[in-house]
Amino acid sequence: MRIDGVEIEDSFAEAFGMRGTRLLVTADTPRWARTAGESMTGFSTSVIGCGVEAGIERELSPEETPDGRPGIAVLLFAMSTDGLGKALIDRVGQCVLTCPGTACYAGLPDGDARLPVGNALRYFGDGFQTAKRLGERRFWRVPVMDGEFLCEDATGVTKAAVGGGNFLILARDRVAALTAAERAIDAMREVREVVMPFPGGLVRSGSKVGSRYKALMASTNHRYCPTLKGGIEDSALGPEVGSVLEIVIDGLTEAAVAEAMRVGVRAACGAGGAEAGVLRITAGNYGGKLGPFHFHLRELLA
Questions:
Q1: Who's near 87: CB < 8 A, 6+ residues apart?
Q2: Dihedral (C-alpha) 175, 180, 186, 191: value to the nearest 10 degrees?
Q3: Which residues, at least 6 apart from 69, have a Cβ–Cβ distance to it below 8 Å?
Q4: pTM of the prediction?
């Protein structure tokens, strides 16, 4: 299979089940809603080192938020419900509660489980906090120095979330790889229910499971490192490949991850494809032995 001259390898991305949730953060202006969202999702690229994977799903208009103000939708993922719950309290408490004018609402009112948010952070009010109920939803009003912090009592968690969808862009040089990857990210950000948690959505330090050093559970994916291709026997790169970038996708559903991969690969191959220096598209997997979700590239793009 080729798209604009770019070879689509007969491979698949292997992904894992995760716990996921969505929060809606609002503020007086889009600037401060995004500031809170960016702060909350910092240092959250991989559960391997960060404990949680998170990102901004999209901006919200005042018509889409519970309080009629500008907002940001944030997605967070972890390997367990308990791990996700701890990350929620830490990140909302340190990054949203502290940010001027913000409020925090459940983005998944229902789910397979419920995690406390305002119910835990209310204690910061030192006894001056008050509860408010609107219909079936409960909120906490916590006094702070610029007024009050309004936070929903709890948010829903889905056990159907998927983490680790991915594809790799193999290009002639670094400029071609980055240009294609930026096109892919721009297109994928239009897909709902997914985030690409790494910096700017891109990973240059793709990893493999294990290492020759016992203390490390993951190490550089040497088969896709261009500087090593002439000195190792198992390189996956031909002499024409000078740069590789990976995109990792987490989503609330399997279908959302599949759609993001489909849109992203097509965008990466666009604007000239092979003539612009994009040579091949492949995906990372572990032989199908570790993750239950398999996203076959050619099936997605057929």
A1: 51, 52, 54, 76, 78
A2: -150
A3: 26, 27, 28, 33, 62, 103
A4: 0.94
Each residue of 204-249: pLDDT tens digit?
A: 999 998 899 999 988 999 999 999 998 999 999 999 999 999 999 9
Q: How far is CA 13 from CA 62, 108, 261, 285, in A?
A: 37, 27, 10, 5
Number of H helices, E strands in the chain: 7, 17
Q: How far apart are CA 27 and CA 33, in angstroms?
A: 5
**Tens-digit pLDDT profile for residues 96-133:** 999 999 999 999 988 899 999 999 999 999 999 999 99
d(CA 302, CA 297) in angstroms, rounded, equals: 9
d(CA 289, CA 302): 25
Structure tokens at 27: 């503020």
